[in-house]
């Protein structure tokens, strides 16, 4: 089986074949909840294409972002300890490889390659979350939005993001009007253009100049931890 997921591509072919025998290809449909907050974590999803948001639902219904996952990573618990702390929802349709969480946990325990790979990925997720927390407290919203859009682009094909301004506001914990004003400033600089439910980046390099340094710092950690950069469109065959 050919894979686009970077984690699966990092595994030795023999290990990947072992995982493939226990995995199921699935379609990711925008709006579908892969993991409900507070429910048992049954499956892990290795994303091949599309975009999944991970968010912590608050008592008032707010849903601020806890992470974004595309073909660089996976969704689901590797520990099986308790109910899910966050919700995982598909935002851009695509495909994934699904495996039962206990099966993946058993593979981690039995195989050092799987254990090392997923431990490094968990470390990257933790570091990115820490960096985002510092960024949210330190940088202006335009810089944060530029960084967030770059993170999305790294996880999809092309320069079009079929995302609503309401969703972006939800993820970044601001009012929709704040997102609209920032996108209008970017449009005025020739960085992007918008229409209902779609953001089209016209110049990725120009968008990068609008971002804070946190985007580059997070991107640099991937190769340092032994992973390809997330905007590389690699493929591997079983």
Mean pLDDT: 90
What percent of residues adopt helix (DSSP H or I)? 40-55%
Rg, Å, rounded: 18 Å
CATH topology of the largest domain: Jelly Rolls
Topology as a string of helices (H) and strands (E): EHHEEEEEEHHHEHHEEHHE
Tally of structural domains: 2
Low-confidence stretches: none
Give the CA-CA distance, first to last residue.
Answer: 5 Å
Please report the first level of CATH classification, the CATH class of the largest domain. Answer: Mainly Beta
Q: Care to count the β-strands? A: 11
Q: Please outline the major beta sheet.
A: 6 strands, antiparallel
CATH architecture of the largest domain: Sandwich
Proportion of strand residues:
15-25%
Shape assignment? globular
> Can you tell me the CATH superfamily of the largest domain?
Jelly Rolls
> Which structural class best describes the helix and strand composition?
alpha+beta
The count of helical stretches stands at: 9
């Amino acid at each position: 089986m050919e894979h686009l997921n970077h984690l699966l591509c990092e595994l030795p072919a023999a290990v990947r074949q072992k995982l493939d025998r226990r995995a199921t290809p699935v379609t990711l449909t925008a709006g579908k909840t892969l993991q409900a907050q507070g429910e048992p974590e049954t499956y892990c999803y290795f994303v091949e294409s599309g975009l999944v948001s991970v968010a912590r639902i608050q008592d008032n219904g707010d849903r601020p972002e806890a992470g974004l996952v595309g073909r660089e990573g996976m969704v689901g618990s590797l520990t099986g300890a308790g109910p899910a702390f966050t919700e995982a929802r598909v935002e851009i349709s695509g495909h994934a490889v699904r495996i039962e969480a206990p099966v993946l946990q058993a593979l981690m325990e039995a195989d050092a390659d799987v254990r090392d790979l997923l431990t490094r990925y968990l470390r990257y997720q933790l570091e990115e979350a820490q960096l985002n927390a510092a960024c949210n407290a330190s940088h202006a919203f335009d810089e944060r939005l530029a960084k967030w859009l770059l993170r999305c682009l790294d996880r999809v094909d092309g320069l079009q993001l079929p995302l609503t301004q309401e969703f972006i506001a939800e993820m970044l914990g601001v009012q929709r009007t704040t997102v609209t004003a920032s996108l209008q400033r970017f449009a005025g600089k020739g960085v992007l253009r918008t229409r209902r439910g779609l953001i089209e980046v016209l110049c990725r390099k120009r968008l990068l100049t609008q971002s804070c340094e946190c985007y580059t710092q997070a991107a640099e950690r991937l190769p340092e931890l032994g992973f390809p950069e997330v905007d590389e469109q690699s493929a591997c065959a079983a």
